[in-house]
Amino acid sequence: MMNIGIDVMGGDYAPDAVIEGSVDSLGHISQDETLVLIGDEPTILRKLEDMKAASSMFRIVHTSEVIEMADHPAKAFSQKKDSSIAVGYTMLKNGQLDGFCSAGNTGAMLVGASYTVNVIPGVFRPALATLLPCVDGRDSVILDVGLNPDCKPDVLLQYGILGSLYAKFVLKIDNPTIGLLNIGKEETKGTPSVKAAYELMKEHPGLNFIGNIEGHDMFNENVPDVVVCDGFVGNIVLKEAEAIYFLFKKRNLSDPFFDRLNYESIGGTPIVGINANVVIGHGISKRTAIMNMILQTRDVVRANLAQKIIEAI
Amino acid sequence: MMNIGIDVMGGDYAPDAVIEGSVDSLGHISQDETLVLIGDEPTILRKLEDMKAASSMFRIVHTSEVIEMADHPAKAFSQKKDSSIAVGYTMLKNGQLDGFCSAGNTGAMLVGASYTVNVIPGVFRPALATLLPCVDGRDSVILDVGLNPDCKPDVLLQYGILGSLYAKFVLKIDNPTIGLLNIGKEETKGTPSVKAAYELMKEHPGLNFIGNIEGHDMFNENVPDVVVCDGFVGNIVLKEAEAIYFLFKKRNLSDPFFDRLNYESIGGTPIVGINANVVIGHGISKRTAIMNMILQTRDVVRANLAQKIIEAI
Description:
Two copies of one chain form a homodimer.
Chain A: E1 2-7, H1 16-25, E2 33-39, H2 41-50, E3 59-62, H3 73-79, H4 84-93, E4 99-102, H5 106-117, E5 127-133, E6 139-143, H6 153-169, E7 178-181, H7 192-203, E8 209-213, E9 226-228, H8 231-250, H9 256-259, H10 263-266, E10 268-272, E11 278-281, H11 287-303, H12 305-312
Parallel strand pairs in A: 1-2, 1-4, 2-3, 4-11, 6-9, 7-8, 7-9
Antiparallel strand pairs in A: 5-6, 5-10, 10-11
Helix pairs in contact in A: 1-11, 3-5, 4-5, 6-7, 6-12
C-alpha cells in the first residue's frame, strides 16, 4: 500500500483545483495506491459531492488551519500545527504517508522538509529538480532550480549524483548522462566554482559525465539526461522557458514540442536530498497541473527516490 | 566623416559572407560614412567584381595574415601583426577608424580591446551588451553576456550605468529603466553579490532602477530597458533564447515576435567600457547577420558610445 498525501489547502486555486485534480488522478493510479486528502473535511466532502465523486475513493484527514501563500514560512509552519502542510509532514515522518505534495507556500514546504523530515546524512544541500522537455521526446532533469543560488563545487558534484539517481530510478534511464551548464565547452570556462566542479565530476567514478553544455544545447538532442547548475542559473533558465511558453500561447501558436514547455504538464518539482518523497507544485497550478503534480509524486514514491538516495550517498 | 572598419577575414563564412554583407550595407549608410574593408585585397576585389559591386564604394586596407577561429587569441594577436584584427585595432587606436567590427576570433577581439585601445579609466570591467527583443516592440539591453562570469556588486552596479548609457545614446531611450536579473522580486533574494548590487543600485543617484526581475519577465512588457546580470547568467539566457529560435525554425513555425529572436537580425554585441567603438559578431554570421553587425556598429559610432561612457564615468 502506498499513501500519497495531498495538501488540499495550498495553491492559488485551492481547494477547488486541488480536489478536482485529485479526482482526475484516480483514473491513473493503481489499486494499491491511496490518495490522502489533507485539509478542511467539510469543504472536501462538499466539493466531492458537487463533483459526484465518491469520498470513499480517498482517505480524508481533517485539518483546521491554513498556511496562506503570503504567510511567513517558518513562523506559519511552527505556529499553525494543525495546518495541512504541518500535518502532512508529521504523517510523512511517522510513516503514515509515502509521499506528500503541495502547490502551497513553497517556503513553508521547505521549512517542513528541513525541520520535520530532515536532510539525508551526507547530503550537503537538498535541491529542487525539475524536468525540461527535449525535442527528441526525452525529458531532462535540471537541478538545482532555486534552493541554493550559490553552490560550491562539491555541492554541484553531488547534484550530479542526485540528478543521476532521479533519472535512473524515476525516469528509468540506464546510465544517465550528466552535463554541467556552462558558458563554453572547454573545461577552463566559467566561474571558479563551476571549473572546480568540472574537475570533480570528471574524476568521480560511476558518473556518466559528458562535460560542459551551453545554453544553446537546451531542449535539443545534445542535452544530457541531467543538467547540473546552481539554483540561481537553474531558476532563471526554467523561468525563461516559462516566459517563452507564455508568449507562445499568447500569440496563438501551437506545436507539440513547445506545448511541452507548459509547466502544467510537468506538475511539480521534487525536493531531492531529504528523508522523504516530497513534491512542490507551482502556486498557479490549476486542475491539470495538480493532477500531474500528484502523478509525479506517485512516480517518485514508486521509485522510492528518497530511499535510493539514502542507500547511494 | 565616419570610418567603419570591417574584419573581412573573420567568421565561419568569411570572407565571402562578410563582403556580401558589406555590399548590402551600402544601401543603409549615409554619404559621410565609409566602410573600410580590412583583409586580403585581391580576394576582396575579386569578390566585389563577381558581385558587380564597385570597389570605389569602399576603402580597402590590405592585410596579409589571418587570425583563424581556432587560433590561440593572445598568441595570434601578438604574432600576426598584419592580420585584419590587429590592423583594425591599430587603425582604431590611431583614429583612422571610428568603429570596428568582426565576426572572427572573439578571444582575439577581446585581447585587442584590452591591449590596444584599453579599458576606459574608471571602468572596472568591460562587458558584452546585446539586445533581446521584447513582445511590445522594444529591444532591451542585457549585459554582461559572457565577459565576466563572476561579478562583484560594484561591477554589476556599473553594468547598470553602462547599459543605461547604451540605451540612452544608441537606442535613444530617455531615462531608461534598469532591472537586476534575479530569482525573486524581493530584495533579499539571490546570491550575496546580487543582493549587495541591489542595495548599491537602489541608492545610486540618477539610475532609474526598478528592482529585481525574474526569468519569466524576459521578452514581455515587464522587462526593463536594461537587464543587468553577470556574464555567466547572461550568456546562458542569451543562448537559451538561441536554442528556442533554432527549434522554432526547425519546426517550421513562423511568428513576427519569435523571428526577432534570430541572432541574425541583431547582428553583434558591442564591447562596452573600452576606449573605442567595437562590435563582435557571431562566428556563424552569414550575409544578413554581417549586414546587421555593420549597421549596429554604425549606430554605436553615430552615438559615439565610447566617448559618452568616457564623459559619464
